[in-house]
Design a protein that fits this description.
Structural class: alpha/beta
CATH superfamily of the largest domain: ATPase, nucleotide binding domain
Strand content: 15-25%
Distance between the termini: 17 Å
CATH architecture of the largest domain: 2-Layer Sandwich
Strand order of the largest sheet: 3-2-1-4-6-5
Bound molecules: adenosine monophosphate
CATH topology of the largest domain: Nucleotidyltransferase, domain 5
Helix content: 40-55%
Length: about 400
C-alpha cells in the first residue's frame, strides 16, 4: 500500500512516499522543489523521480495521495477531496488566502494527472473538532461566528502525532489508540482511568501550543488564522483588534500594507530587527543586541502564557512536550520556558536538556511530577496514516 503525501505551498511542492505493506510503515522516498512557477511540470518531475527510484511503474500504483489541507467551510477531519470538499475549501479562500488557493489548484492538477487514484485531505483543523465550544469561540456577534470568525486551530497533524506518540511513550496505549482512532470514532473509544493530560508545544517557524486530554485536543493557541497565538518567524501572533484600524489611521498606510507588515515584517523578525531565524536572533542577543534579547523574551513569555492556560484548564499536566525546529533543537528556549516552575512539579534536568537535540527523550528530572519530553514531529506520517485509515474504513 503506497501513499504519496504532497505538501503544496504557493511556490513549492514537497512530497513523501510511504509504504504500509506487511504492517510496516516505511518512508520510501522524499523530495521537493522550491520556487515552482509551473505546477503541472513540477508534479511531472515529482512522479518521474519516484518512478526513476523504482517505487512505482505507473501512477495507478499509488493507493492514494494525501494532502495536509488547511481549512474548509463546514468540513474537517480526514475526507475524500471530491468537488464538494474543494468547493468548501474555496468558500474559505478569504480566511486562508496563502494556503487554500494553491492547495485547490494543486489537488485539481493531481486529480487530472492520475484519475482514479483517491485524493484525501487531512485538515489542519481536524484535531480541534472535539474541543469544547467555549475554548473555540470569540466573543463576537453570532453573524461573525457564522461566517467563520472563530478559533479553528491549526498544526493539527503535528499535535495529533504528539498526542499518539506521547501516550505510547508514557505507557498509555489505551490513550494512544483513542488518539489514533479519533477521526473514526470521535471520543467514543474508552480509556482506562486516570485521564492523560499532555501539553504539546510545536515551536518552529510557525508556533502553536495545544492542551490534550486523553488523546483529544481541548484547544489551540492558533485561532481563526495562522496569524494568532505565539509570535511566529515573521508573522505577528496575538494582536488587539483595535491595532489595525489605529495603525492604518495613524501611520497613513492601507489595510493591505498593514496586513503585509503583520504577515511579513512582524513576529520574531519585527521584534528583533535582526532575522526571522531564532539561531541568528540568539547569536545577536549573545552579542548584546537588546532588541534580539527582547524578541526571545517575548517568545518565551507567550509560550509560558499558553502552557499556563492549558495547565490550568487540564487541572495540571502529566507531560509537556516540545517539538518542531525550535522545540526540538533550542535548549536555551526550552530552559527559559521551564524556568522556576518547581512549585508546579515541572523540573527540567539541565544536563539532559542541554544534550538533547531532535531525539525522543525525557528531559525532566527523575522526580519531576510533570514529565518534560522532546518528541520530533512527523506530520506527513500522520497524513499518510489517516489516509490509509479512511480508505480501509470506507472499504469495510
Ligand atoms: P520549523 O518551522 O519547524 O522548521 O522551525 C524553524 C525554526 O527552528 C527556526 O527559527 C530555526 O532557527 C529553528 N531550527 C530549526 N532547525 C534547527 C537546528 N537544527 N538547530 C537549531 N535551531 C533550529
Amino acid at each position: 500500500m503506497k501513499i504519496l503525501v504532497a505538501n503544496i505551498g504557493s511556490t513549492s511542492l514537497k512530497w513523501r512516499l510511504f509504504d504500509f505493506s506487511n504492517n510496516l510503515e516505511r518512508l520510501l522516498h522524499k523530495g521537493g522543489f522550491e520556487r515552482v512557477t509551473d505546477y503541472p511540470a513540477a508534479i511531472d518531475d515529482c512522479l518521474a523521480q519516484i518512478k526513476a527510484a523504482g517505487h512505482i511503474a505507473h501512477e495507478s500504483d499509488f493507493t492514494a495521495v494525501g494532502f495536509k489541507t488547511v481549512l474548509a467551510k463546514n468540513v474537517t477531519g480526514c475526507v475524500r477531496l471530491d468537488d464538494r470538499v474543494l468547493g468548501a475549501m474555496e468558500a474559505f479562500n478569504g480566511l486562508a488566502p496563502a494556503h487554500n488557493p494553491p492547495y485547490i489548484t494543486g489537488i485539481r492538477l493531481f486529480g487530472k494527472r492520475m484519475p482514479g487514484v483517491p485524493l484525501v485531505g487531512l485538515f489542519e483543523t481536524a484535531f480541534y473538532q472535539f474541543a469544547p465550544e467555549a475554548m473555540m469561540r470569540y466573543a463576537v456577534p453570532q453573524a461573525w461566528n457564522d461566517i467563520g470568525i472563530r478559533r479553528w486551530g491549526f498544526h493539527g497533524a503535528s499535535h495529533k502525532f504528539i498526542a499518539e506518540r506521547s501516550a505510547e511513550l508514557l505507557g498509555r496505549n489505551d490513550v494512544a489508540e483513542r488518539a489514533r482512532r479519533l477521526y473514526v470514532d470521535g471520543l467514543k473509544t474508552p480509556t482506562n482511568q486516570p485521564g492523560l493530560r499532555v501539553i504539546s508545544c510545536h515551536l518552529g517557524g510557525s508556533s502553536s501550543i495545544t492542551g490534550i486530554r486523553d488523546g483529544a485536543a481541548i484547544g489551540n493557541s492558533l485561532g481563526m488564522s495562522p496569524q494568532s497565538g505565539l509570535p511566529h518567524n515573521n508573522r505577528v501572533g496575538d494582536l488587539d483588534s483595535e491595532a489595525i484600524p489605529y495603525a492604518v489611521k495613524t501611520l497613513g498606510i492601507t489595510i493591505e500594507e498593514a496586513q503585509r507588515q503583520l504577515t511579513k515584517e512582524s513576529g520574531l523578525k519585527g521584534l528583533s530587527g535582526v532575522s526571522n531565524d531564532i539561531r541568528d536572533i540568539t547569536t545577536a542577543a549573545e552579542q548584546g543586541n537588546a532588541q534580539a534579547k527582547l524578541a526571545l523574551d517575548v517568545f518565551v513569555a507567550s509560550a509560558r502564557h499558553w502552557i499556563g492556560g492549558y495547565f490550568f484548564e487540564l487541572g495540571g499536566a502529566d507531560a509537556i512536550v516540545f517539538t518542531a525546529g525550535i522545540g526540538e533543537n533550542r535548549t536555551e528556549i526550552r530552559a527559559a520556558i521551564c524556568a522556576d516552575l518547581e512549585g508546579l512539579g515541572i523540573e527540567l534536568d539541565s544536563a539532559l536538556n542541554a544534550s538533547t537535540r531532535a531525539t525522543e527523550t525525557v528531559i525532566s528530572k527523575t522526580g519531576s511530577r510533570v514529565k518534560i519530553m522532546v518528541i520530533p514531529t512527523n506530520e506527513e506520517l500522520v497524513v499518510a496514516r489517516e489516509t490509509k485509515r479512511l480508505l480501509e474504513n470506507s472499504r469495510n
